[in-house]
Amino acid sequence: KLPTLAVVGATGAVGTVMLEILSTRQNVWGEIRLIASARSAGKLLTVRGEQVPVVALSAEAFDGVDVAMFDVPDEVSAEWGPVAAARGAVVVDNSGAFRMDTDVPLVVPEVNPAAARQRPRGIIANPNCTTLSMIVAMGALHAEYGLTKLVVASYQAASGAGQAGIDTLRDQLTKVSSTPNLGTAPGDLRRAVGDLGPFPAPLALNVVPWAGSLKDAGWSSEELKVRNESRKILGLPDLKVSATCVRVPVITTHSLVVHATFEREITADQARAVLRDAPGIVLCDDPANGEFPTPNDVVGTDPTWVGRIRQSMDEPNELELFVCGDNLRKGAALNTAQIAELIAAELTVG
Ligand code: 2RA
């Protein structure tokens, strides 16, 4: 019998992409049960070409479930993940609730698939979308050249802040396109756009050097996630990591500029050779012909796209590169589905 999958948070921005992904990947699931808040119960959603009714989140909703994927706020995962695990489901959680729990593996199937087998709490965590948008590329390079330091700047899309982020950016773009000359005087966007939604400053025609909440010494939660999660996934607890997270007026697909330091000398051609063969990576690096990834060319695709690879002019063991990854797919739903498929294979083999 094929395993039963539950999708918890089926109606959100990531949940919607998840249903699309489950409809197009190889079908390894028997029943797919859709679970959401009581407010969405009874709603019909399409998955694998069939209309499936949403059931309300409850302990009983997990009866008979083998794998439960969660895409809900941290506090909902913190409460309900252990409930699903106690009912016998392996939980794959995309919130921040368990990522740094030492008894919960943080898994990227291209980088550390074996970690998924050690799950004393019955819970596996999915990394944050910003970490995920670069970590497949960094994992491949680390395996060959030994990473010692990462300095990154993110260019994060509005959908990282969920449907509210998408709606806010679209609404602001409508407003700014109907008012001439906006973006030319200090503060004119703030006055024109009104509601800032989940962002601390206007996003249309702007960039906002902030994502997440304020933590110690001026760092944002998002910047600390990039640091802590990269260390855990790569198994490098002392990796030096500095991140600056910036929101840009893109609907979906996060980009990052990465400055990476390795144990050994690495040329741009050597890095390209590694990335060309790495699973989950598309190398797009031919600036002479105008080829480099942009979020708009990458959105809706599964891989991590890498371009603009250069060896540092000052240090032969340092590289600059530009990566793009769809934050709703590899950054969230796809990686969650890939982890769930690892568990499905484990359960099917027995
Ligand atoms: C963001 N990384 O882009 C967050 C969402 N998980 O806001």
Task: Write a structural description.
By secondary structure, the chain is an alpha/beta fold. Helix content is 32%, strand content 22%. It has helices at 13-24, 74-86, 129-145, 162-177, 188-193, 221-234, 268-277, 295-298, 329-349, and strands at residues 5-8, 32-36, 44-47, 50-56, 67-70, 90-93, 123-125, 147-156, 240-247, 254-262, 281-283, 304-311, 318-325. The longest helix is centred in the C-terminal third of the chain and has 21 residues, at 329-349. The radius of gyration is 21 Å and the shape is globular. The termini are close together. The mean pLDDT is 97. 3-amino-D-alanine is lined by residues 128-130, 156, 160-161, 211, 222. This is Aspartate-semialdehyde dehydrogenase. Keywords: Amino-acid biosynthesis, Diaminopimelate biosynthesis, Lysine biosynthesis, Methionine biosynthesis, NADP, Oxidoreductase, Threonine biosynthesis. NADP(+) binds at residues 11-14, 39-40, 159-160, 327.
